[in-house]
Amino acid sequence: MTFRSDPAPMRGRVDLPMQKLIHITAPHLVAPRQTLYGLDPAARLGSVLADVAATHSDAGAVLITGDLADAGQPTAYETLHDLVDNFPIPVHLTLGNHDSRPGFQMVFGGDGFVHSSIDLGRWRVILVDTKDETSVHGSLDGDRLDWLDQQLTAAANRPVLLAMHYPPHDLHVPNFAAFGLKDPKALHALIARHGNVRQMLFGHMHLNVSGMLFGIPFSVNRGTAQHIALDLGQRGKPAFVAGQPSFAIVLLDVDEAVVHHIDGLSNLPMLRPADPK
Q1: What are 252-262's pLDDT values in tens digits?
Q2: Distance separating alpha carbons of residues 186 and 206, to the nearest angstrom
């Protein structure tokens, strides 16, 4: 399993073949033999990983953007380790608000923020740890913005995909408005100064959302655990539903990014079979 990677330098522009990565988020794993809202989070994540290994083995990386465990139990991280260890595609992890940094480190090691920087073709993929230690908000305090600044500087004129748990802006879902990323203006200023971030991926919301922030396209995936029934008037606890586990396929061409959300359509009744020609 790849936990961290050191980016290799890119000398000049080279038109490379289209790259593929897989975005998974919010598995919310629990202790063995436990369920979460009547669901088995490990089985749901396992089914997604099996699908990815069987049908997307050409992917260059799998990103899992936080809320790895629902309550931060070390045994939940042991389950995750069992699922991703020796996976045929490099897996890169970061933390979300439900995670426990000490619990994660007991199983996966490390002693700091959980970042990764990955080169896929012409693209640099940067996965940033936004877990705050003292609140349910996301945070980029400590040396995290400095680290990101260094990564964006090293990327130079290459297109960058930025991934993290928290969206850096209010996405107009009322029940999430109270615990977003702290000080998003600092992140915006950093991104604007470099000008090379072309696509962003987030988790946290248990919804499929897309749009544009800071003039940059973004995508949020529902994740593999419980989903949320969107209600734009709901300001208290949201309604959880048991939709199919979801993940996203991200296709990176020379200067273009396309995101496909996969939501278990293959398990629905077939209306017309595909024509193999």
Answers
A1: 998 899 999 99
A2: 25
